[in-house]
Design brief:
Length: about 290
């Protein structure tokens, strides 16, 4: 069963180091195009994220976004660089001695001095593993959503294929009557102008008319293309491009059939066919 390219998935994990939330959106696109948004501390995961998305999806514009809210207990520790502080105090004392005065430094002024306080960041290894595991779960949800939507679209396409075949069958049943009506119109016209006709020219015109009204090939191809659509829709592989090509072929045959039509009922049926083909074409744009 084909998959839709339009879907959304969201998964959250609340762990000891904080809360992780993945949101993945996908929409239709000719190729796979992935946009990744990560917190600054987890930027090293970008390549792994792209690889995992590429392993699960074939087409679509994918927006994968990760949010991380660290737990208070997992915040980084502040550590005093005592050696640097001693060097700073010694430098201050030397400057004070040269100026002839020794002002007492303010503790918080010293703490604001770059390098005096150092932040020891927590080990992000475990949270990176959790983020990738959660990504896999989110991709599972996204793939399942794409499969459900793909099944719905496939059902709509099959329904329109059935209606298209009804139109083709109705045209086949209508054609003998159309041909009989055309033949009668020609005979009536012949009675009016028989004395003026060139027999050779008449045969040529009748042959051309018969050829123009013969739509068996167009209807055979329409039926074959519709049956092929049904087979392709039943395939589990990406089918969007193949179905798009078949829609072009269906539209071409319907246009040819319409150009040959000399009957209002057949023309109406051709219009119905083209509407169904266009509806399928719009639905197929979302299939992978």
């Amino acid at each position: 069963m084909p998959k839709s390219m339009t879907a959304f998935a969201r998964e959250t994990l609340d762990g000891d180091q904080g809360e992780l939330t993945w949101e993945i959106r996908s929409v239709n696109h000719r190729f796979l195009e992935t946009f990744v948004r990560l917190p600054e501390d987890l930027r090293p995961l970008e390549m792994a994220v792209r690889e995992r998305v590429g392993a699960r999806l074939d087409r679509g514009k994918v927006d994968a976004s990760l949010r991380f809210a660290p737990a208070p207990a997992a915040a980084g520790e502040l550590r005093l660089n005592r050696h640097y502080l001693e060097l700073l105090l010694a430098a201050g004392a030397e400057v004070g001695a040269r100026l002839g005065r020794m002002p007492a430094p303010e503790p918080f002024d010293l703490l604001r001095w770059p390098g005096v306080l150092e932040e020891r960041k927590p080990d992000l290894g475990p949270i990176q593993v959790q983020a990738l595991d959660l990504l896999d779960r989110t991709l599972d949800t996204l793939v399942a959503a794409r499969a459900r939507e793909g099944e719905r679209l496939a059902s709509l396409i099959r329904e329109r294929c059935d209606r298209l075949l009804v139109c083709v069958t109705t045209v086949r049943e209508r054609m003998p009557q159309v041909m009989a009506e055309v033949r009668q119109r020609i005979l009536d016209r012949l009675d009016e102008v028989r004395a003026e006709l060139d027999p050779n020219r008449l045969e040529q015109e009748l042959a051309l008319l018969a050829q123009r009204l013969d739509v068996d090939e167009e209807m055979d191809r329409l039926q074959a293309h519709v049956q092929e659509v049904g087979l392709v829709v039943a395939n589990n592989k990406p089918v969007g491009r193949r179905l798009d090509f078949l829609m072009q072929e269906l539209n071409r045959e319907a246009n040819t059939l319409g150009s040959k039509s000399s009957d209002l009922e057949v023309t109406r049926l051709v219009v119905d066919m083209k509407v169904l083909i266009e509806q399928m074409r719009e639905q197929i744009q979302n299939l992978e």
